[in-house]
Amino acid sequence: MDTIDLLRLVHPALAVIWVFPVIGMTSYFAWQTRQRRQAAIAKQKTKIPPVVGLEHVKVGRWLAASVVGLALIGLAHPITKKLISNQVWAYNPYRVVFIGLMFVFTIASLVMLYRAKPALWRGIFAALSSMGLIILGSQPEVFRRGYELLVSHYYYGMGASLLMIVSVAVLPEIYRSPAWRRAHIFLNTVALLLFIGQGMTGARDLLEIPLSWQEPFIFGCDFVNKTCQ
């Protein structure tokens, strides 16, 4: 494997080593938190410790930041690779600078979202973080699999990332309103389904992507008729 092939493994490796275990931890603590709340409503005794809710919040915040960070890494690789190989800097340096600034802008907005306390500022920084992700994902260098929208790793990942940003933004509200709590449960259940879809589509994409030295032969195949010279 060449260096470019090893760089392709950074995104899936981080997903397997870090993000998916954190998803499991967050889901476990979420279930424990709900079980303890249900027991408290029914005035029943439970062995689930009171600290489980705080642990769920802490691990959930780790998860949100990790998912958005992983999405940025997944976007950075194809964008950087094609900007360099196509020598975009030579004829359009402003676009290269813009993309670099968008990565910085998105990360800074996410950091400020985690630090913001008033609901207005949480909403503003959540919107800015989401906008940065969408703009970066809309670059022509990113393969989005638009012809198979319902099984696209890009769209599953983008949807999950945006839901994670929303979860962080509305976190204080779930303690004040049962409606927000129900919305939190629903949105994160959707996010969990998207994570499952990411696991499946990510494995498929790794199977489809050839090694760099194989690309000239593989990309010369007829993908419609499934034949190669």
Which oligomeric state applies? single chain
The overall number of domains is 1
- Radius of gyration from the CA trace? 20 Å
What distance lies between the first and last C-alpha atoms, to the nearest angstrom?
A: 24 Å
Q: Note the overall shape.
A: globular
Number of helices: 9
Please estimate the helix content: over 70%
Number of strands: 0
Secondary structure class reads: mainly alpha
Order of helices and strands: HHHHHHHHH
Which spans of ≥5 residues are poorly predicted at pLDDT below 50? none
Observed structural traits:
229 residues, mainly alpha
Summary, kept brief:
This protein is mostly helical and 229 residues long.
Q: How would you describe what is shown here?
A:
The chain is an all-alpha fold and 229 residues long. It has one domain. The protein contains nine helices and no strands. It has helices spanning 3-8, 10-41, 52-85, 88-91, 93-115, 119-137, 153-170, 178-208, 215-218. The longest helix has 34 residues, at 52-85. The protein is globular, with a radius of gyration of 20 Å. The model has no long low-confidence stretch (mean pLDDT 93).
